[in-house]
């Protein structure tokens, strides 16, 4: 490749070539990403002695003594080389190669001394130790969030006289004056009307409680949005779309930093307590990933390798779901199915271990005081029947339709927020939505309670001593046998699940019909308010609101099926399996299936969702109904559009994410997509010799490309390798400081051997060490279908296009995304990080 004879060749088709496109148009970014101090972009020894090249080509580095020898970066690595700028994609191949070299070096040294052997064992064990730390930290934070959110939610309705830090349930635990009919009332807990006016009855008391409920909700929401806006803009939203993008290799500095973790944890408690239609389960994935990113800095192999760090973040995503739902296995499957881009077998084992540690930590904290990891844990024991598959599938159809419509409505609202003046007033938007939510939710007890409490109420299977409105059935000697009563009372210590085993289906009483009307109104309210709530500038998850919508629909259908079986048990549908006086239908099971269907319709989760739901209920026999409803919801939702809510938000924000599930059917070739095009300027390339430091710096200053191909000479365009812009800038700055006599006229060489220089001449700069000698290349006739697969499976930043070894152009990740957008009839300019 060093043969200058190549320069005599001519390649006419290259004369009209255009410049290669940058990986990410940093100049076009419109978001304010100013919180970058959380994750230092370079090693500490570099950041203390060098300045990043941001102020032009003459940026310099201070505090380093000069050295007159010819610098070879292979022998003397420069701090900062091999790192990445913000809003860039990592080079997966280079990162994995670096880790292999590091591991090979450690293994070879371990055979030479005992100390090196100990270092090798420590290095191998560090990954498992990191998983333990992530599990402990995430579990502890999740437990604290659960306890505080539960307390602040109850604070909107009253206060405990024994101590203001007690929530309603814990306040009444030690009371001897509670009854089965009014288990939630005790003298120690006072509503605000009782505290201020001395009475809880009458219109004045109702209005006072109403006003206090709204004031507390507005205060919590105001504090949440102000803290996010002032200290950590990245703390808003769910975080899962950004986590997916980061795991695919994109760098957003500060998104997983310490300030984001602190503010997200605090504001998540406030946002959930405000009563907004949102959940904490999605943001807990973001919190766990923040913990993982911060703890990665304790271990060198994860701090200095972006690919290894993303393996840890994949495990952290599993931890987030594990502490959110108390479902360690479901968390691992969620990370594998929904968020991870690269998930080797080793990461699977470590994800499972980290999720186990996190679930154990949360169980030790016991935030709800019931030895359960989630508020809505239930157990069903009544078997389901084949006939019930029909209503289960109907719930799947409802979940798919609602999921598809919700995605379209929410994306339309978020796009309106981004493109109009509405986006300029995030604080006002949050306060208005909170005020409307509190105003409309207080009169209805099912919208007044938190989302987790609502789901728990809907999943519940009625027992004899249940005081809920949904359990207001008519108990008469005709529909309740003495043996059932005896069995229920004798097994009272076993809990509500035993009652559901023994109580037959009963006629619905007036309380049940009142509850059904309230649930119908709550369903409409939740469906509408969640559209405008998700995406506001506060932490907001979508799992709980989606499950609440499905649980309401499922409970309504379940009660209807229960009454139909009771009143028409002689019909052909029920006669074979539902005898009079039997417990045939479990409405709580319908609520659970509806919750899974709606969540599946919104997120398009399948396997992980089914596992999460059966881990919640502890009943393996309900896997088939869950699978039927989940798959039906996915099929129905996919008929309206194949994107889930997270993929839709990734596209809305213009993140450079290549969706592995998206099909590619174009017959285009690499030469049809590559840059330069015929109307573009020539391709910006470096030559392996013959260019001066000033010429290289001028090319860097005049362009914004993320890297430059290196060729033998301009005439032949024979490819030598590829050099990253950041590595080139840092190396030239380093050479000016550490190598005496380097000036703008000094020659730059990318060759193995530097030709002898005259004694009176300026010293040369050798940059062979930063040159990638094996860049990925395709020929100009390679089908784009194969090229897209290469980008997806190898995580490439760019791919060079050659013809008989001569460079024709370059295809970047953004070029691929723009091309795929054109194929889908979307605006290709939307593929910008905005």
UniProtKB/TrEMBL annotation:
GO molecular function, one term: chloride channel activity
Domain CBS: 674-740, 770-828
Compartment annotation: Endosome membrane; Membrane
Domain of life where this protein originates: Eukaryota
Recorded GO CC terms: endosome membrane
Keywords: CBS domain, Chloride, Endosome, Ion transport, Membrane, Transmembrane, Transmembrane helix, Transport
Pfam families: CBS, Voltage_CLC
Transmembrane segments: 128-152, 213-235, 256-278, 284-300, 312-336, 386-405, 425-442, 515-536, 542-561
SMART domains from the UniProt entry: CBS
Transport keyword on record: yes
InterPro entries the UniProt entry points to: CBS_dom (IPR000644), CBS_dom_sf (IPR046342), Cl-channel_core (IPR014743), ClC (IPR001807)
Topology class, membrane: Multi-pass membrane protein
Family to which this protein belongs: Belongs to the chloride channel (TC 2.A.49) family.
Protein name, as recorded: Chloride channel protein
Species annotation: Umbra pygmaea (Eastern mudminnow)
């Amino acid at each position: 490749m060093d043969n200058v004879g190549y320069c005599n060749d001519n390649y006419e088709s290259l004369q009209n070539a255009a410049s290669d496109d940058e990986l990410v148009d940093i100049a076009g970014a419109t978001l304010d990403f100013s919180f970058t101090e959380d994750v230092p972009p370079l090693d500490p020894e570099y950041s203390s002695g060098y300045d990043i090249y941001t102020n032009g080509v003459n940026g310099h580095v201070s505090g380093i003594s000069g050295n007159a020898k010819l610098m070879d970066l292979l022998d003397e690595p420069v701090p900062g080389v091999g790192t990445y700028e913000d809003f860039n994609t990592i080079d997966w191949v280079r990162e994995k190669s670096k880790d292999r070299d590091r591991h090979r070096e450690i293994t070879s040294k371990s055979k030479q001394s005992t100390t090196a052997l100990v270092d090798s064992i420590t290095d191998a064990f560090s990954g498992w130790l990191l998983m333990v730390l992530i599990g402990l930290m995430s579990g502890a934070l999740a437990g604290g969030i659960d306890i505080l959110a539960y307390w602040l939610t109850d604070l909107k309705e009253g206060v405990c006289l024994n101590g203001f830090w007690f929530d309603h349930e814990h306040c009444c635990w030690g009371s001897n004056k509670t009854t089965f009919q009014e288990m939630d009332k005790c003298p120690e807990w006072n509503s605000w009307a009782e505290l201020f006016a001395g009475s809880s009855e009458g219109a004045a008391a109702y209005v006072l409680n109403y006003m206090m409920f709204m004031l507390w909700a507005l205060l919590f929401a105001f504090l949440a949005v102000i803290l996010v806006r002032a200290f950590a803009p990245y703390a808003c939203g769910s975080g899962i779309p950004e986590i997916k993008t980061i795991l695919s290799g994109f760098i957003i500095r500060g998104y997983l930093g310490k300030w984001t973790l602190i503010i997200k944890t605090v504001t998540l408690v406030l946002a959930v307590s405000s009563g907004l239609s949102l959940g904490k389960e999605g943001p807990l994935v973001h919190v766990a990933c923040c913990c993982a990113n911060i703890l990665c800095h304790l271990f060198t192999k994860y701090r200095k390798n972006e690919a290894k760090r993303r393996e840890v973040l994949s495990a952290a995503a599993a931890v987030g779901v594990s502490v959110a739902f108390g479902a360690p296995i479901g968390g691992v499957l969620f990370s594998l199915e929904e968020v991870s881009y690269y998930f080797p077998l080793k990461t699977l084992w470590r994800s499972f271990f980290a999720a186990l540690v996190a679930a154990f930590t949360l169980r030790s904290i016991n935030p709800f005081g019931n030895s359960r990891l989630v508020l809505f844990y239930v157990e069903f024991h009544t078997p389901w029947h084949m006939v019930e598959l029909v209503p289960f599938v109907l719930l799947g159809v409802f979940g798919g339709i609602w999921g598809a419509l919700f995605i379209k409505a929410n994306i339309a609202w978020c796009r309106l927020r981004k493109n109009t003046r509405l986006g300029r007033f995030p604080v006002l938007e949050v306060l208005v939505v909170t005020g409307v939510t509190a105003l409309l939710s207080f009169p209805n007890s099912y919208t007044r309670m938190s989302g987790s409490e609502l789901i728990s109420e809907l999943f519940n299977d009625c027992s004899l001593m249940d005081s809920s409105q949904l359990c207001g059935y008519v108990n008469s000697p005709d529909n309740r046998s003495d043996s059932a009563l005896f069995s229920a009372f004798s097994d009272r210590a076993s809990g509500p699940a035993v009652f559901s085993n023994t109580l037959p289906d009963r006629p619905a009483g007036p309380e049940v019909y009142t509850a059904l009307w309230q649930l119908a109104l709550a369903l409409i309210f939740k469906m509408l308010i969640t559209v405008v709530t998700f995406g506001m500038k506060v932490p907001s998850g979508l799992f709980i609101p989606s499950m609440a919508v499905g649980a309401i629909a499922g409970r309504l259908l379940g009660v209807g099926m229960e009454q139909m079986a009771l009143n028409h048990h002689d019909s052909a549908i029920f006669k074979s399996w539902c005898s009079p006086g039997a417990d045939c239908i479990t409405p709580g099971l319908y609520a659970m299936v509806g919750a899974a269907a709606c969540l599946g319709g919104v997120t398009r989760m399948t396997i992980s969702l089914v596992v999460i739901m059966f881990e919640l209920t502890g009943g393996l026999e309900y896997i088939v109904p869950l699978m039927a409803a989940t798959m039906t919801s996915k099929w129905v939702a996919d008929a309206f559009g194949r994107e889930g809510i997270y993929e839709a938000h990734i596209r809305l924000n213009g993140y450079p994410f290549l969706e592995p599930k998206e099909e590619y059917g174009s017959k285009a070739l690499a030469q049809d997509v590559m840059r330069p095009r015929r109307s573009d300027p020539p391709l910006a390339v470096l030559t392996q010799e013959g260019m001066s430091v000033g010429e290289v710096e001028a090319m860097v200053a005049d362009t914004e490309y993320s890297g430059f191909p290196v060729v033998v000479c301009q005439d032949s365009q024979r490819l030598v390798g590829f050099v990253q812009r950041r590595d080139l800038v840092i190396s030239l700055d380093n050479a000016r400081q550490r190598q005496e006599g380097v000036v703008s006229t000094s020659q730059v060489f990318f060759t193995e051997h530097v030709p002898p220089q005259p004694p009176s001449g300026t010293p040369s700069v050798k940059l062979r060490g930063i040159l990638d000698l094996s860049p990925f290349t395709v020929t100009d006739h390679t089908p784009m279908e194969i090229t897209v697969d290469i980008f997806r499976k190898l995580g490439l930043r760019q791919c060079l296009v050659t013809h008989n070894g001569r460079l024709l152009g370059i295809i970047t990740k953004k070029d691929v995304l723009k091309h795929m957008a054109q194929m889908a009839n979307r605006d290709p300019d939307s593929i910008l990080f905005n």
